[in-house]
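Task: complex structure prediction.
Instruction: return structure tokens for all chains below.
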Amino acid sequence: MNAFFIVLGLAAVAVCLYGAVQARLPRNLSPAGYVANTHAIVRYFAGTETELYSAVERSIVAVRHASVTATAERSIYVDVRPDVRRLDDGLGLWARVTVEPSGSGSRYSVTGMKKVKLDGRAERCLVSFERDLRAALRTTTGVRPIDLGGE
Amino acid sequence: MALGIVLLIAFVIGYVLYANWLRRGIQPRSGDTALPIPTLRSLFASSVAGTGWKVIDEDNPMVAQSPLMAGRRQQISLRYQSVGGRTRFVIGPNRVWVKGGVPYKAHTIRMRLNSFVHAVRSADASTAIGGSTGA
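Output:
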């Protein structure tokens, strides 16, 4: 019985710590202050640049724990927060989705900026966010990236 | 005293060999097969995903992930490319945790990689596999 209460207490402390860290993390970032410090993930699409930009803008709403903080001519800035499904993906990051023309189609490039400099898991968070974005693109707008492996 | 030292040395050697075996077992496998991409993808879904694991990325690379309840997430990805009527692929873990020099939960990753390689070989005898055999 005592063990049960100890586990319950530890869980309560963990939840409080998580909330405290979340409350202290910065929530907003101006595009001018954005400096990418992760690798870039690039995906190619058949549609035009305008179509892709519009589809990405609509799809981000469907991505859990992500919200648009600013938009620019070709870029969308996103606040990506930790998600319970991605507990090992760090403390979140700011992501920038830049849409560009590419040949007869278009492409997007997703980069990230760590919210906490020493967060070594931000790269994984970026990969998870980009994956969720692709899933949202598929379900919300039906847009899929071109499979460069050939099918 | 001497017996203690011998046992200690034997333990250290055994630990190093075991860690090496685990590391070899989770090395990526590459291959070349006549199977079409949809078949390869379906073999990945049936042999790597399952028993708690599920496919979380349907694109190229295709990714399967361990459940949250099983602890730290593990992932295995399948990257493929169509070349001259055949399909080249690389399957391997893209998220592994190492604890004390030993890959964490390496057995499930090794078995899933081997299961995929075995399934591809069974479906197409002309499949050539490179990389670790995970033996």
